[in-house]
Amino acid sequence: MQLPPHDGVELSVVDMHTGGEPLRIIRSGYPQVKGDSVLSRRRYVQEHLDHLRRVLMFEPRGHYDMYGALIVDSEIPEADLGVLFMHNEGYSTMCGHAVIALGRFAVDYKLVKEPQSPETQVNIHCPCGMVKAFVEYSDGKTGGVRFHSVPAFAFGTGTTHDFCPHTKQFPNVFKVCRINYSINGFPPDVTVEVEGFGNVTVDISYGGAFYAFVNAQRFGLDVNKSRTRDLVDAATAVTNAVKSQVKLQHPVSDDLAFLYGTILTDGKDDFSSETTANICVFADAQVDRSPTGSGVTARVAFQYHKGLIQLNQTRTFQSGATGSQFTGKAVEETKCGDFRAVVVEVAGRAFYTGVSRFVQEQDDKLTHGFLLK
């Protein structure tokens, strides 16, 4: 179908979803994104092209929980593509559900060299760093995708650790020190004052973006059964508390040192063959429909840090919103600055939902987009 005569530049997109979480991949219509790195290009779109994020993410073309990906050039020679992630509030540094979808997209739209069976590797340069995706490929068709994360680490945890020598030597150190430092890579406890709930102890972990983790039972909630509105309110209160009371740091770049959101869990962090559920509330109270790829990465990182799981122990993570599932496991120990870190493998499925061409007519007073809360 062709659009009738109109003014304004067309924006061409491919829509997908991963575990129910949408991804709008922008194919054309964006002006040149300037910068000498993916992180600098992220800053450029924030400062100069943010109106186009609102056009594509907000109503009437999108909705409050829309998510987007803009493909850009990468300064890393081995990267097949660079990408910027966008949502209702701004721009993320990592998005696992988007990486899973982009893996399929890159193979299907020939952004990589000749595909290989049974898997084709796609190197995706995200603002947080290089993420390696592995796309099932057979008889010309793509399937499931797994990816290896950037180094993921526990930044601050809600419990002390028996295996940490400093716990016995300095029994009060984890109670008095704040989150902005750690001893030999062992982060201190983190307790924040949450409006309406009092003192709440949280885990803070990095999986390409920083998240706070809390057992939903702390608020009398169940991630699988409680009203979404109640879960959002509790998670948002935690996010606001952590942002105001905890100073985050990242060894690589200050651009990465921000809290992306809060993930409420069912508390089942010990390794088990049983599925464990969580729900992620990020950006401006946006609810992830999937188990959250970067969230699974961060959750596996702090589970490994606490000794609750070992390398190559696969867990299944379920979205409390839709019931969709990812698997995740720590596959390699590494370092990120002074932090003990792990590379996490996350796997899931993404599906195409359609293609669209959007326009902005000059006399449309709502053309720049709006949101209803």
Automatic annotation (TrEMBL):
<dbReference type="Pfam" id="PF05544">
    <property type="entry name" value="Pro_racemase"/>
</dbReference>
<dbReference type="GO" id="GO:0050346">
    <property type="term" value="F:trans-L-3-hydroxyproline dehydratase activity"/>
</dbReference>
<keyword id="KW-0456">Lyase</keyword>
<protein>
    <recommendedName>
        <fullName>trans-L-3-hydroxyproline dehydratase</fullName>
        <ecNumber>4.2.1.77</ecNumber>
    </recommendedName>
</protein>
<comment type="similarity">
    <text>Belongs to the proline racemase family.</text>
</comment>
<dbReference type="InterPro" id="IPR008794">
    <property type="entry name" value="Pro_racemase_fam"/>
</dbReference>
<comment type="subunit">
    <text>Homodimer.</text>
</comment>
